């Protein structure tokens, strides 16, 4: 799924805390947002493998949530929300399409790498690919309530995620055709950082 959807899911996970414990809401929202975005920072270096740990994040999240519930310290809440956001991100990637430039062609059996099992998990394709109409539907369904319940910078983040997501969906298939052309002109020094899927 696309990064705006991941970011919005992170906010949606933490949003109930805004009502239950308003003083902890900023820590929970910031932690969940950061955790839901972090795995995709490996986009140009071993994407869905370098920073994607579907089992490890989940195993770390469980005690972190217990600690946050017991201590109610903002730092503990932020850490728990971060780990839950990262774990959900990795799970969502499994429910989406494969790791390829044109995932609608369904040529890849790699969704996310499981370091514990030492193998790639297969995509389930419940949402066919990042930037698909299904991806946009999920983004809109999550964002509209967030625009009502969130305030300040987090409402702006939700609105920005929606705007970026709508734009990305409109351009998604064109970008897949354009990427190999653009990255084909990458200087030799940078070309080693260009993922193989962008060369085809």
Q: What labels describe this entry?
A:
2 strands; two-stranded antiparallel sheet; 62% helix; 200 residues; mainly alpha; 7 helices; globular
Beta-strand content estimate: under 5%
Helical proportion? 55-70%
Q: How can the largest sheet be summarized?
A: 2 strands, antiparallel
The 3D shape can be described as globular
How far the N terminus sits from the C terminus, by CA atoms, comes to: 21 Å
Please state the structural category.
Answer: mainly alpha
Largest sheet: spatial strand order: 1-2
Rg calc: 17 Å
Number of domains: 1
Order of helices and strands: HHHHEEHHH
- In the predicted model, the low-confidence regions spanning at least 5 consecutive residues are none
Notes on the structure:
With about 200 residues, the chain is mainly alpha-helical. It has one domain. Helix content is about 60%, strand content about 5%. The chain has a two-stranded antiparallel ribbon with strand order 1-2. Strand 1 and strand 2 form a beta hairpin. The longest helix is centred in the C-terminal third of the chain and has 33 residues. The two termini are about 20 Å apart. This is LexA-binding, inner membrane-associated hydrolase. It comes from Halorubrum aquaticum. Pfam families: YdjM.
């Amino acid at each position: 799924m696309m990064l705006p959807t991941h970011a919005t899911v992170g906010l949606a996970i933490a949003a109930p805390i805004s009502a239950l414990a308003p003083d902890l809401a900023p820590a929970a929202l910031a932690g969940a947002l950061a955790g839901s975005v972090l795995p995709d920072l490996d986009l140009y270096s071993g994407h869905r493998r370098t920073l994607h740990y579907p089992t490890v994040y989940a195993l770390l999240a469980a005690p972190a949530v217990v600690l946050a519930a017991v201590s109610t310290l903002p730092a503990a809440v932020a850490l728990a929300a971060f780990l839950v956001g990262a774990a959900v991100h990795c799970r969502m990637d499994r429910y989406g399409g494969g790791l390829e430039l044109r995932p609608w062609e369904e040529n890849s059996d790699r969704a996310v790498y499981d370091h514990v099992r030492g193998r790639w998990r297969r995509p389930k394709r419940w949402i066919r690919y990042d930037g698909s109409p299904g991806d946009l539907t999920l983004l809109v369904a999550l964002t509209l309530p967030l625009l009502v319940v969130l305030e300040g910078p987090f409402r702006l983040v939700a609105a920005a995620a929606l705007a970026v997501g709508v734009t990305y969906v409109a351009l998604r298939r064109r970008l897949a055709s354009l990427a190999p052309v653009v990255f084909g002109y990458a200087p030799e020094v940078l070309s080693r950082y260009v993922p193989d899927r962008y060369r085809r």
